[in-house]
Design a protein that fits this description.
Cofactor: Zn(2+)
CATH architecture of one domain: Sandwich
Radius of gyration: 27 Å
Number of strands: 33
Pfam family, one: Peptidase_M1
Keywords: Metal-binding, Zinc
Strand content: 25-35%
Shape: elongated
Helix content: 10-25%
GO molecular function: hydrolase activity, hydrolyzing O-glycosyl compounds; metallopeptidase activity; polysaccharide binding; zinc ion binding
Number of helices: 11
InterPro entries: CBM2_carb-bd_dom_sf (IPR012291), M1_LTA4H (IPR034015), Peptidase_M1_dom (IPR014782), Peptidase_M4/M1_CTD_sf (IPR027268)
CATH topology of one domain: Immunoglobulin-like
Structural class: alpha+beta
Length: 663
Amino acid sequence: MRRFRTTFLFAALAALCLLGGVLWALSGSPAVSRSAAAPETAKSPASTRQGPAVKPAPPAPPVTPSTQALSRRVAEYHLSVQLAPDEKQLTAAETVTWIHPGKKPVSDLYFHLYPNAFASDKTTFMKESGGKLRSDRMPEDGFGSMTLTDVRTEDGVSLLHRMQYVQPDDGNPGDRTLIKIHLPQPVNGGESVTLRLQYEVQLPKIFARMGESGDFVMAGQWFPKLSVYEPVGTRGVKEEGWNLHQYHGNSEFYSDFGIYSVAISVPANYTVAATGFPVKNPRIIEGRKIYQFYADDVHDFAWAASPNFIYAEEAFSTAEVPGVRIKLYLDPLHKDLKERYFQAAKAALTAFSKWYGPYPYTTLSIVVPPKEGNGAGGMEYPTLITAFAANRDSADTSLERTVIHEIGHQYFYGMVASNEFEEAWLDESFTSYAEDRLMEQEYGIASNLPLQASLVTAPKPLTLNAWKYGGANAYTQNVYVRGKLVLKDIERQVGVKTMDSIMSTYARKYRFHHPATADFQKMVEKATKKSWQAYFEHYVYGGDAPDFSVESITVSKNKNGGYESLTTITNKGSLYPGVNVEFTFADGRTLQKTWNGQGGKTTFRLTSTAPLVSAEVDPGHEILLENKHMNNFRKASLPAAFVSRWTLSLTNAIETVLGTFVW
């Protein structure tokens, strides 16, 4: 999923920490791989044409589903699509069957039309993102869209006049990423309904995970995709119904598991990478190559195409990985790096299958986009991931880190299918946690977690809707960094062995389900046999953070010729138990004390043969949820006013350089 680079920020923070007297050994890559709802409105789809249906791509032949279903297969898609590279266009047909998973009659189906996020600068995605995602900007005149040209029932009844664009999150009439189709008759619980759609996608220039760049195409979120209908109990919902959201600047995706049978027609010189596996060899018909793919127990389908891919494949199996074909689709610039991609993929499959349950699919495809297609890089889809684009013929370990992160998403997003609209941390934070662990185990690269904690300048609840963080920076700070630090903090409190058990149990219990944060909390409580409600209220459902400070130090001589010191420690933030305080004396001796954190303030009275030189709260930087370390250290010989002035001046200087930080 989306990743961001913070090398410049870390460098500035490292300077700050050194100047403040906090010495941290920076090890590892600092890269970190994304109001009430407005009333639903209904707008007539002005762009919907009711003329003759376009000729669909060759229909997908029927495929027999596997007998053992791993998921509740709510949807079945049969898709056929033709790529016209010169026109930058997809022409496609879709037959989709939805099985009602609830009990109440349903009269409307809802579909996500994600390419419409790029239809104009008035869409919700473009307004919120400012036309920027990660380091990529929307190319000039790079707009794209999706147009439904025909929608019919299985009996051939047209539903074009029954369609309405809806904007449940913000009421923005310029947003057409979600559409409602009113059915001729309701669908009862357990029954199914089948619709036949024809549509066109005008591919945007590559930006925000999809589009075209030259002759490279990334087809992500390229088909009308059903929203998720949540029965009672799913993610704790009390009343069944559709989970409906538009495509936002920060949000990603949420879909139900199902079956996909997909025919893809491309020019004869193109190679296609796709979710799932090919059911037959590609056929050449009238100068075009026809691929046929099949996947089950997945909740999305993506594909990429290019005439320039250099293809490599290796079979891989371990005790935890029954057998998988790892397929590489390399940009030519990275043709000599294929072994590194294979090694990273094998390390990830081995470790994650051991930690979180066996990888259940027979294929894993890795697509390396060209330099100009970087907007498609660093993203995950079921059984298919994209690496960062190739921009040089060598690469640092961000190559491995990206591959590992995106394969981690095969678990936390792919199988453990959380709602990325509403609880993105369950995907990004969990994957980042797994990524850090494997990078250290496999490559000896340990992330500097205390320094990363200092990046979290605006802590917010981890269960906010993705678009309510107020911008990409706050979203990244919390969903990628802070959420991971919460997991590491829980690990610190319960121990590595117990945390391993928690993560493993959670991943295995909820694979092929849609869990919520409350489900993870239950796993923690079951493993530790105690309530974690207060902790989750502060640090998960709330945006709290501890803020320890050495408020004052006074040193005086006593009548015995020794010294007596009074050191006052406070916590200006949220309650956090058990913090260490280190005292350093003029003769080089150090003394450690532990404060239970109660009451928000305490004073240590010490007698010593040498005067106290300094005091530091949390000298080992173990409290990862504290993001303000400037006041953790104080020298006894500096007047408080001087220390405050020095601290403020340095903070202002750093903020001026970075332009973003508020300590």
